Amino acid sequence: xxxxxxxxxxxxxxxxxxxxxxxxxxxxxxxxxxxxxxxxxxxxxxxxxxxxxxxxxxxxxxxxxxxxxxxxxxxxxxxxxxxxxxxxxxxxxxxxxxxxxxxxxxxxxxxxxxxxxxxxxxxxxxxxxxxxxxxxxxxxxxxxxxxxxxxxxxxxxxxxxxxxxxxxxxxxxxxxxxxxxxxxxxxxxxxxxxxxxxxxxxxxxxxxxxxxxxxxxxxxxxxxxxxxxxxxxxxxxxxxxxxxxxxxxxxxxxxxxxxxxxxxxxxxxxxxxxxxxxxxxxxxxxxxxxxxxxxxxxxxxxxxxxxxx
Amino acid sequence: xxxxxxxxxxxxxxxxxxxxxxxxxxxxxxxxxxxxxxxxxxxxxxxxxxxxxxxxxxxxxxxxxxxxxxxxxxxxxxxxxxxxxxxxxxxxxxxxxxxxxxxxxxxxxxxxxxxxxxxxxxxxxxxxxxxxxxxxxxxxxxxxxxxxxxxxxxxxxxxxxxxxxxxxxxxxxxxxxxxxxxxxxxxxxxxxxxxxxxxxxxxxxxxxxxxxxxxxxxxxxxxxxxxxxxxxxxxxxxxxxxxxxxxxxxxxxxxxxxxxxxxxxxxxxxxxxxxxxxxxxxxxxxxxxxxxxxxxxxxxxxxxxxxxxxxxxxxxxxxxxxxxxxxxxxxxxxxxxxxxxxxxxxxxxxxxxxxxxxxxxxxxxxxxxxxxxxxxxxxxxxxxxxxxxxxxxxxxxxxxxxxxxxxxxxxxxxxxxxxxxxxxxxxxxxxxxxxxxxxxxxxxxxxxxxxxxxxxxxxxxxxxxxxxxxxxxxxxxxxxxxxxxxxxxxxxxxxxxxxxxxxxxxxxxxxx
Lengths: 309, 512
Prior knowledge:
The longest helix of chain A has 32 residues, at 2-33. Chain A has helices at residues 2-33, 41-59, 62-86, 91-110, 121-125, 134-140, 144-162, 164-174, 176-181, 186-212, 224-234, 239-261, 268-286, 290-296. In chain A, helix 2 packs across helix 11. Chain A has a single domain, classed as ABC transporter involved in vitamin B12 uptake, BtuC (Orthogonal Bundle). Chain A is mostly helical and 309 residues long. Chain B has 512 residues and is α/β, with parallel strands linked by helices. Chain B folds into three domains: 3-238, P-loop containing nucleotide triphosphate hydrolases (Rossmann fold); 256-336 and 422-511, 3-Layer(aba) Sandwich (Rossmann fold), CATH 3.40.50; 355-420, no CATH class. In chain B, the strands form five sheets. In chain B, strands 13, 16, 19, 20, 21, 22 and 23 form a seven-stranded mixed sheet that branches. In chain B, strand 14 and strand 15 form a beta hairpin. In chain B, helix 3 runs parallel beside helix 5, helix 11 (355-363) packs across helix 12 (376-389) and helix 12 (376-389) crosses helix 13. Chain B is globular. Chain B starts with 9 loop residues before the first strand and ends with a helix. In chain B, 47% of the residues are buried. Classes of the chains: A mainly alpha (309), B alpha/beta (512).
């Protein structure tokens, strides 16, 4: 019984830690599959975190907070879209600028909201069960966003490989010139993909400030946006690998907390590096196969599209 | 036949299209009858592609009218063209490598039917026209001929009434081309019109009933290619008399200048070809032509010869008798080997550099650098010399690489390499996409170099060219090189069969 409790606790904690990476990562996966490299994930997550928190506290409704966070992420992504797709600015430089902007702007917007306590989403939704067995209490920590994150990999896998819209998305990411010649609206598809990526990043950020650690503090995303980006690349743009990579990161994060709790004689700063390090090392080893990388990588990734004629 | 009583399938009147400073189409008119196979002829830059883009809705004309079966219409985008019944097979295939045949066709149709239903329809059309395609295969596994069949099947599924073919045979073996002509003749007999774009005059004579010739954006003539001679059509295209290339007597029994023995090398590209057991010998004063359909190991062979890929054994490649298999491109150049790559801008020259500095790129060891400093006087003189000798059309030695047309850039690169007096010259597709006049000049330069005692190895898909200039011809197929034969003792048919060797072997494997 005790082992089961521990196992459930680890599973729940892993899922919770993996959720922001799954959400942001799959949003970015869609954007990159359309051929757009948006390095602004960290910035969009931060905007989502601050706007989601403020919206929830101000209106008292976490649903409105989440919607506002997704809107904020998508709005920032549309700024990126206008700059890189319509005005054909360099995607790498614009994405970096977007992150810098997101870090600063979220801090500015959120400055008055630092230190305000908020009840987590899970306890908001299932308050009546608060006196059940320890396992049920653990499972109650899984709020609807975590369940959504469990579903997202399956939904996106199905979308990319089984639907016509997914086929068009892959086609645009592989060769925008051919897709254009066949009569597909490359820019429209890319705008939609980038906006979806932004909304998912915003949701991932709001999950952090509303459920994972229900509060707002400056720069609270703490590099998870960058890890999500790295996961997309190292997973060779495959949904299954991306989901596994996110879980691995979540698991090592939990292992790190446990190690700290056990009083391991290592600097906490070194331990805090562990999830990032382990995830990247494992995924680099997985993605060494250059042939597979070339086959799955969206060939038009990062290349600006200009319709001739 | 009462075809003349029907309105033309397509009639263009006074089409004008301007791109910045250039007039790509200047009052072009042309009319295609139902069931007619109509040739559109012209040099590069004559305005063929622009006209086709207008018909397919990719570009819009600045002036002029388009009539479809007697009604004046607008074609705002490719979807509108497809709805009318215009199908197009692109010169550079519009297929997605990482998708399957059926997925590619689904994307081209814009229909909402399931991939499974589509697969049965693909099989039905493929059977009816004798086009072998397998819907479930990924495009990157397909040969170029198979890819073209996929494109054609995609068009046929839309029951086209006008099929546009843009240089369709440039990637096919002669036998595959003959198969394509049969399909086109059948389509025409069923009432589909065909607009056939090519600069291969013998094909146009064999296939087309009517030809419109473009030059510098204008229609300069029309003819019945079954009656007009190739010479007449070529002269209409270039607007003057056709120069003729002359070969001086080849030197026999020169010393070997390039030897390859039993070279086996795996490709480092995902869809590349592995070179298997390649042996060849090139002597001073000889031109060795290597025929074959692109994608059969040409790129890999050239990389292995030029030094971009090293061989496992040093003595599997000998340049002028010196083992060079382990050497890189610069070291091989020092031994007397020069290389004209396939891609002009990006590998042969740098688009952003002026011609003078592009000349310096490979010629620098020949007295253009002293004590680590560039002698710009000599560099400028060298570039000016090339421009003059090869009649390169450019604004001067300061013209950027990107400002030249493909043919003129190629003439400059050929001139740069020949100017360093190489013992061995490797030339990859030296006249691909080059105008007739420039192509003749380039062939002449290669023959002159051989006559002066250098060995020349030419890789080309243009069999007529190889037969014109080569002393020996070998065929590269599936990464294997056939034994070189004297060009006078072999025929286009024999070489064509060797080119198709790989496809025949694959067919046999499927049959088992």
